[in-house]
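REQUEST FORM: STRUCTURE PREDICTION
Request ID: SP-0412
Submitted by: Lab K.M.
Chain count: 1
Length (residues): 324
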Amino acid sequence: MRAAWYEKQGTAREVLTVGEMPDPMPAAGEVRIRIAASGINPGDIKKRQDAFGYGMPYPRVIPHSDGAGSVDQLGDGVSSEWLGRSVWCYGAQSYRPFGTAAEFTVVPVEKIVPLPKKVTMEQGACLGIPGITAHRAVHVAGDVAGRTVLVQGAAGAVGLCAVQLARRAGASVIGTVRSSAEEETARNAGAHEVVRNDQEFKARLTALAPKGIDHIVEVAFAANIEADLEFLKMGGSIATYATDIGTPKIPFWPMVFKNIRLFFLGSDDFPSQAKSSAARDLNAALEAGWSGFEIAERIPLAEIARAHELAEHPVRRGRVIVSL
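STATUS: Completed
RESULT:
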């Protein structure tokens, strides 16, 4: 099969190789997917860069955990109903060496999800990490129906999924964006209100939620924790999946006095039930007409280094997809 891989960590141009590898075969409980589109997430880039200092987990890594395609082989014990079905997958390179940046990938059957009709492979390739993270971020603190949810970074991949999922769950959703150019994205995702992070941010948010915020989905924990605390109600909650500073300071006593609940979210290690619930709700949103993600770049596998560079330094708003 044609595949992209790296055998050392570093910049995309230095370490990513495209070539031929043996076709993988599914073991018991696994399926093989003929990949049509492979999604790039920040975590894929950080692994390749060794941003967290963990080193190479395997001698050779095919990157990308998310992808979409059609099931073309089944391992022992897998129902024949999956054969030939269009699916999206997640976790292909989670505690495994070979992800979706290849003509074929093999994953456990519990990590594939039927791709709804009329949903493109490109959309399917975007769903895994952002969608599952967003679902957990919205629901980890409990039912949000009738509550006010603030989604920081509502135009980002996780943010727009969180907006859509929170709205579908019955929350009143406020999204924050960095610029007016991102407002449309947040509104299209389902935000009832959109607030720009500018000098009028606090006044506007206070006017929109005079009684405070029940739950916050947070993308920049270090930068926003003090403001988040100010706006949260007594007993409110924060679910954070990213931070701008790796060792943030936490206003401990003010959080204690407000009885704030804080959840740190790493998508690789969510409970399996949370992942399956997320997959079900994401499909339901798509089937109900949610438009999903804006696709900014479609890059062939042969140019995967350029795809990674565009994901690191975007020139257009939207997701970067590697096409096979």
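NOTES: The first helix runs from residue 12 to 15.
Reviewed by: T.R.
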